[in-house]
């Protein structure tokens, strides 16, 4: 995955490749660079428009409830969603998704 992708880059991906089915932007296991994984709610909301996505890896990005909720409610074709190691600013992503 490319850990330099933030919210602006996520918006560009969503606008440029609307039929995308596989997107891996998560941080590899064992690697941790606090400044790299910077996608926020705005980026996740943009990615939520990619309704053809079946695989999405956002491990170790910083999403809040708005971003996680947007993904959970819009990306109904997902067969793989990786939110591991995510800094959700105090919210549990599993609880947010189960509420959708």
UniProtKB/TrEMBL annotation:
Top-rank taxon: Eukaryota
Pfam families to which the protein is assigned, alphabetical: LRR_6
InterPro entries per UniProt: Leu-rich_rpt, LRR_dom_sf
Record SUPFAM superfamilies: RNI-like
Compartments where located: Cytoplasm, Cytoskeleton, Cilium axoneme
Any single GO CC term annotated in Swiss-Prot or TrEMBL for this entry: axoneme
Protein name: Uncharacterized protein
């Amino acid at each position: 995955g490319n850990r330099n992708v933030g919210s602006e880059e996520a918006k560009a991906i969503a606008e440029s490749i609307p039929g995308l089915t596989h997107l891996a932007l998560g941080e590899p296991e064992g690697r941790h660079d606090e400044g790299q994984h910077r996608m926020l709610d705005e980026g996740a909301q943009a990615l939520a428009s990619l309704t053809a996505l079946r695989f999405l890896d956002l491990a170790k990005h910083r999403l809040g409830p708005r971003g996680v909720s947007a993904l959970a409610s819009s990306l109904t074709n997902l067969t793989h969603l990786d939110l591991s190691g995510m800094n959700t600013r105090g919210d549990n992503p599993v609880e947010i998704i189960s509420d959708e």
